[in-house]
Amino acid sequence: MIHQFRDKNQIAKRKRLIKNIILLMTFLLLALLGVYTYFSGAIHFLGRPFWKAKTTVVNNIGAIGYVVRTKTSVYKENENLLKENTDLKTSMIDYQVLKNENIALKESLGRIQPNTDMILSNILTKPAYSPYDTIIIDVGKDNNIVVGDQVYSNVITPIGEVSAVYDNTSLVVLYSNPGKTTEAIISNNNTSVELVGRGGGNFEMTIPIDLPFEKGALVLLPNLQSEVVAIMQDVISSPNDPVKKVLLSSPINVQSLKWVFVKRN
Description:
Blueprint: H1 2-33, H2 40-109, E1 118-125, E2 134-137, E3 150-152, E4 158-165, E5 170-174, E6 181-186, E7 191-199, E8 202-208, E9 218-220, E10 228-236, E11 243-249, E12 259-263
Antiparallel strand pairs: 1-2, 1-12, 2-5, 3-4, 3-12, 4-5, 6-7, 6-9, 7-8, 8-11, 9-10, 10-11
Protein backbone atom coordinates (compact mmCIF):
# COMPACT_ATOMS: atom_id res chain seq x y z
CA MET A 1 0.00 0.00 0.00
CA ILE A 2 2.83 2.42 0.93
CA HIS A 3 4.65 1.72 -2.36
CA GLN A 4 1.48 2.36 -4.37
CA PHE A 5 0.97 5.74 -2.59
CA ARG A 6 4.54 6.81 -3.34
CA ASP A 7 4.14 5.83 -6.99
CA LYS A 8 1.00 7.96 -7.29
CA ASN A 9 2.82 11.03 -5.81
CA GLN A 10 5.72 10.64 -8.17
CA ILE A 11 3.39 10.29 -11.14
CA ALA A 12 1.51 13.49 -10.08
CA LYS A 13 4.77 15.43 -9.75
CA ARG A 14 5.94 14.29 -13.20
CA LYS A 15 2.58 15.35 -14.69
CA ARG A 16 2.85 18.88 -13.12
CA LEU A 17 6.40 19.23 -14.36
CA ILE A 18 5.47 18.19 -17.89
CA LYS A 19 2.50 20.59 -17.80
CA ASN A 20 4.67 23.52 -16.68
CA ILE A 21 7.24 22.74 -19.39
CA ILE A 22 4.52 22.69 -22.03
CA LEU A 23 3.09 26.05 -20.81
CA LEU A 24 6.52 27.66 -20.80
CA MET A 25 7.28 26.44 -24.30
CA THR A 26 3.90 27.66 -25.49
CA PHE A 27 4.49 31.13 -23.93
CA LEU A 28 7.89 31.40 -25.56
CA LEU A 29 6.54 30.28 -28.91
CA LEU A 30 3.74 32.83 -28.82
CA ALA A 31 6.22 35.57 -27.83
CA LEU A 32 8.45 34.70 -30.77
CA LEU A 33 5.47 34.82 -33.11
CA GLY A 34 4.53 38.34 -31.84
CA VAL A 35 1.09 37.32 -30.66
CA TYR A 36 1.31 39.49 -27.48
CA THR A 37 1.59 42.70 -29.50
CA TYR A 38 -2.08 42.31 -30.42
CA PHE A 39 -3.04 42.23 -26.76
CA SER A 40 -0.78 45.06 -25.51
CA GLY A 41 -3.73 47.43 -25.22
CA ALA A 42 -5.56 44.98 -23.00
CA ILE A 43 -2.48 44.37 -20.92
CA HIS A 44 -1.99 48.14 -20.42
CA PHE A 45 -5.67 48.55 -19.61
CA LEU A 46 -5.56 45.82 -16.98
CA GLY A 47 -2.22 46.95 -15.56
CA ARG A 48 -2.93 50.67 -15.45
CA PRO A 49 -4.81 50.69 -12.09
CA PHE A 50 -2.00 48.73 -10.46
CA TRP A 51 0.70 50.96 -11.93
CA LYS A 52 -1.19 54.10 -10.95
CA ALA A 53 -1.65 52.85 -7.42
CA LYS A 54 2.05 52.08 -7.22
CA THR A 55 2.96 55.56 -8.47
CA THR A 56 0.61 57.20 -5.95
CA VAL A 57 2.09 55.22 -3.06
CA VAL A 58 5.64 56.04 -4.11
CA ASN A 59 4.80 59.73 -4.56
CA ASN A 60 3.09 59.91 -1.18
CA ILE A 61 6.05 58.31 0.53
CA GLY A 62 8.36 60.77 -1.22
CA ALA A 63 6.10 63.70 -0.28
CA ILE A 64 6.11 62.67 3.37
CA GLY A 65 9.86 62.49 3.32
CA TYR A 66 9.99 65.92 1.64
CA VAL A 67 7.71 67.44 4.28
CA VAL A 68 9.85 66.02 7.09
CA ARG A 69 13.04 67.25 5.46
CA THR A 70 11.46 70.65 4.75
CA LYS A 71 10.46 71.24 8.38
CA THR A 72 13.99 70.53 9.52
CA SER A 73 15.55 72.63 6.81
CA VAL A 74 13.09 75.48 7.34
CA TYR A 75 13.89 75.56 11.06
CA LYS A 76 17.60 75.69 10.34
CA GLU A 77 17.11 78.27 7.61
CA ASN A 78 15.03 80.37 10.00
CA GLU A 79 17.85 80.27 12.54
CA ASN A 80 20.33 81.35 9.87
CA LEU A 81 18.05 84.22 8.78
CA LEU A 82 17.62 85.39 12.38
CA LYS A 83 21.39 85.38 12.85
CA GLU A 84 21.92 87.26 9.59
CA ASN A 85 19.28 89.79 10.65
CA THR A 86 21.03 90.31 13.99
CA ASP A 87 24.39 90.70 12.25
CA LEU A 88 22.88 93.27 9.86
CA LYS A 89 21.39 95.25 12.74
CA THR A 90 24.74 95.22 14.54
CA SER A 91 26.49 96.33 11.36
CA MET A 92 24.01 99.19 10.95
CA ILE A 93 24.57 100.28 14.57
CA ASP A 94 28.34 100.19 14.06
CA TYR A 95 27.92 102.12 10.81
CA GLN A 96 25.83 104.80 12.51
CA VAL A 97 28.31 105.13 15.38
CA LEU A 98 31.21 105.46 12.95
CA LYS A 99 29.23 107.94 10.86
CA ASN A 100 28.48 110.12 13.89
CA GLU A 101 32.09 109.93 15.04
CA ASN A 102 33.28 110.85 11.56
CA ILE A 103 31.02 113.91 11.48
CA ALA A 104 32.11 115.01 14.96
CA LEU A 105 35.77 114.52 14.07
CA LYS A 106 35.43 116.51 10.85
CA GLU A 107 33.72 119.33 12.76
CA SER A 108 36.54 119.35 15.31
CA LEU A 109 39.27 119.28 12.67
CA GLY A 110 37.55 122.17 10.93
CA ARG A 111 38.12 124.37 14.00
CA ILE A 112 41.90 123.94 14.01
CA GLN A 113 43.66 127.17 13.15
CA PRO A 114 45.98 126.90 10.12
CA ASN A 115 49.07 127.82 12.19
CA THR A 116 48.20 125.56 15.15
CA ASP A 117 50.24 122.41 15.67
CA MET A 118 47.69 119.89 16.96
CA ILE A 119 47.71 116.11 16.81
CA LEU A 120 44.77 113.77 17.23
CA SER A 121 45.11 111.06 19.86
CA ASN A 122 42.96 108.21 21.13
CA ILE A 123 42.25 107.90 24.84
CA LEU A 124 43.59 104.58 26.13
CA THR A 125 42.37 104.86 29.72
CA LYS A 126 39.95 107.21 31.48
CA PRO A 127 39.65 108.27 35.15
CA ALA A 128 37.73 105.11 36.03
CA TYR A 129 40.79 102.99 35.09
CA SER A 130 43.67 105.42 35.62
CA PRO A 131 44.75 107.61 38.57
CA TYR A 132 42.10 110.10 39.69
CA ASP A 133 41.29 112.70 37.00
CA THR A 134 44.03 111.59 34.64
CA ILE A 135 43.92 109.96 31.21
CA ILE A 136 46.46 108.08 29.12
CA ILE A 137 46.68 108.82 25.40
CA ASP A 138 48.35 106.92 22.56
CA VAL A 139 50.93 109.50 21.48
CA GLY A 140 54.26 110.23 23.11
CA LYS A 141 57.89 110.80 22.17
CA ASP A 142 57.17 109.18 18.79
CA ASN A 143 54.99 112.24 17.99
CA ASN A 144 57.19 114.87 19.67
CA ILE A 145 54.88 115.30 22.65
CA VAL A 146 56.49 117.08 25.62
CA VAL A 147 55.50 117.77 29.23
CA GLY A 148 53.29 120.86 29.44
CA ASP A 149 51.51 120.39 26.10
CA GLN A 150 47.85 121.34 26.43
CA VAL A 151 45.15 118.76 25.75
CA TYR A 152 41.77 119.66 24.24
CA SER A 153 38.52 117.73 23.99
CA ASN A 154 37.26 119.33 20.78
CA VAL A 155 40.04 121.66 19.66
CA ILE A 156 38.55 124.66 21.50
CA THR A 157 37.92 123.26 25.00
CA PRO A 158 41.05 122.62 27.13
CA ILE A 159 40.79 119.80 29.66
CA GLY A 160 44.34 119.28 30.94
CA GLU A 161 48.07 119.13 30.36
CA VAL A 162 50.61 116.43 29.57
CA SER A 163 52.47 115.58 32.78
CA ALA A 164 54.59 112.60 31.65
CA VAL A 165 55.73 111.39 28.24
CA TYR A 166 56.76 107.87 27.23
CA ASP A 167 57.79 106.28 23.93
CA ASN A 168 54.28 106.04 22.44
CA THR A 169 51.96 107.09 25.27
CA SER A 170 51.50 110.10 27.53
CA LEU A 171 49.89 110.80 30.90
CA VAL A 172 47.50 113.75 30.95
CA VAL A 173 46.49 115.44 34.21
CA LEU A 174 43.07 117.08 33.94
CA TYR A 175 42.58 120.59 35.27
CA SER A 176 40.00 119.18 37.69
CA ASN A 177 42.58 116.85 39.29
CA PRO A 178 42.27 117.24 43.10
CA GLY A 179 44.51 120.04 44.35
CA LYS A 180 45.70 121.14 40.91
CA THR A 181 45.63 124.93 40.54
CA THR A 182 44.98 126.73 37.25
CA GLU A 183 45.09 130.44 36.52
CA ALA A 184 41.84 131.60 34.88
CA ILE A 185 39.63 134.62 34.16
CA ILE A 186 35.91 135.12 34.81
CA SER A 187 34.45 136.03 31.41
CA ASN A 188 31.78 138.55 32.44
CA ASN A 189 34.06 140.83 34.50
CA ASN A 190 37.61 139.80 33.49
CA THR A 191 38.54 139.02 37.10
CA SER A 192 41.61 136.85 37.50
CA VAL A 193 41.00 133.81 39.68
CA GLU A 194 42.68 130.59 40.67
CA LEU A 195 40.79 127.38 39.99
CA VAL A 196 41.43 124.47 42.32
CA GLY A 197 40.54 120.96 41.16
CA ARG A 198 38.17 118.91 43.32
CA GLY A 199 38.10 115.76 41.18
CA GLY A 200 35.39 114.29 39.01
CA GLY A 201 35.37 117.27 36.65
CA ASN A 202 34.67 119.76 39.44
CA PHE A 203 36.45 122.90 40.65
CA GLU A 204 36.26 125.54 43.33
CA MET A 205 37.55 129.09 43.61
CA THR A 206 37.50 131.87 46.14
CA ILE A 207 36.39 135.39 45.15
CA PRO A 208 35.69 138.61 47.09
CA ILE A 209 32.31 138.73 48.81
CA ASP A 210 31.26 141.81 46.86
CA LEU A 211 32.04 140.26 43.48
CA PRO A 212 28.73 139.27 41.82
CA PHE A 213 28.07 135.56 41.31
CA GLU A 214 26.28 134.53 38.15
CA LYS A 215 25.28 130.89 37.68
CA GLY A 216 26.41 129.65 34.27
CA ALA A 217 29.14 132.28 33.90
CA LEU A 218 32.16 131.03 31.95
CA VAL A 219 35.67 130.86 33.32
CA LEU A 220 38.43 131.00 30.69
CA LEU A 221 42.11 130.25 30.44
CA PRO A 222 44.18 133.44 30.11
CA ASN A 223 45.00 132.86 26.43
CA LEU A 224 44.49 135.02 23.36
CA GLN A 225 41.56 132.85 22.35
CA SER A 226 38.48 132.35 24.53
CA GLU A 227 38.93 128.83 25.86
CA VAL A 228 36.33 127.76 28.43
CA VAL A 229 37.76 125.66 31.23
CA ALA A 230 34.90 125.78 33.78
CA ILE A 231 31.33 126.94 34.36
CA MET A 232 30.00 128.48 37.58
CA GLN A 233 27.39 126.31 39.29
CA ASP A 234 26.90 127.35 42.94
CA VAL A 235 28.21 129.65 45.65
CA ILE A 236 28.91 129.18 49.36
CA SER A 237 29.14 132.36 51.41
CA SER A 238 28.60 133.87 54.82
CA PRO A 239 27.76 137.54 55.51
CA ASN A 240 30.69 137.85 57.94
CA ASP A 241 33.31 136.41 55.52
CA PRO A 242 35.24 138.75 53.24
CA VAL A 243 35.32 136.08 50.54
CA LYS A 244 32.99 133.45 49.16
CA LYS A 245 33.59 130.04 47.63
CA VAL A 246 32.29 129.28 44.15
CA LEU A 247 31.74 125.76 42.87
CA LEU A 248 32.31 125.06 39.19
CA SER A 249 32.18 122.15 36.75
CA SER A 250 34.01 121.24 33.56
CA PRO A 251 32.05 121.89 30.34
CA ILE A 252 33.17 118.46 29.10
CA ASN A 253 32.38 115.00 30.42
CA VAL A 254 35.68 113.18 29.95
CA GLN A 255 33.96 109.80 30.25
CA SER A 256 32.15 110.46 26.96
CA LEU A 257 35.33 111.25 25.01
CA LYS A 258 36.99 108.81 22.61
CA TRP A 259 39.82 111.02 21.37
CA VAL A 260 41.53 114.29 22.29
CA PHE A 261 43.77 116.83 20.57
CA VAL A 262 47.25 117.63 21.84
CA LYS A 263 48.54 121.14 21.15
CA ARG A 264 52.28 120.80 20.73
CA ASN A 265 54.41 123.72 22.00
